[in-house]
Amino acid sequence: MYAAEDALVFHNIDFIMIAVHLLRKDYARIARCLVPVGAAQAAMTLEQREAMLRRHARAFSEDEVRRKFPKA
């Protein structure tokens, strides 16, 4: 179930510390705490996990925000 949704599961780190490391852009620390869920994540190297976390944590462009939340 988690693997089908590409869930991100972590160990030895809590929500606050995830936020702190995200603000510091310390994706390596977060990647080391990632528990691989499913074959795709299990096959990733540490560097690939870092890159995935960077993609998930990037800022949305103004165009992406407009498409997601059109004015009523």
Q: How would you characterize this protein structure?
A:
Helix 2 packs across helix 4. Strands 1-2 form a two-stranded antiparallel sheet. It contains 5 helices and 2 strands; from the N terminus they run E-H-H-E-H-H-H. The relative contact order is 0.16. The mean pLDDT is 94. The chain is mostly helical. The termini are far apart. The chain has one domain.
Low-pLDDT runs? none
End-to-end C-alpha gap? 35 Å
User: Helical element count?
Assistant: 5
Summing up helix and strand content along with how strands pair, one would put the structural category as mainly alpha
What is the β-strand count?
2
Shape estimate = globular
Entry keywords:
72 residues, mainly alpha
Helix/strand layout:
Elements: E1 9-10, H1 15-23, H2 27-33, E2 34-35, H3 38-42, H4 46-57, H5 62-68
Antiparallel strand pairs: 1-2
Helix pairs in contact: 2-4
Brief account:
With 72 residues, the chain is mainly α. Helix content is 56%, strand content 6%.
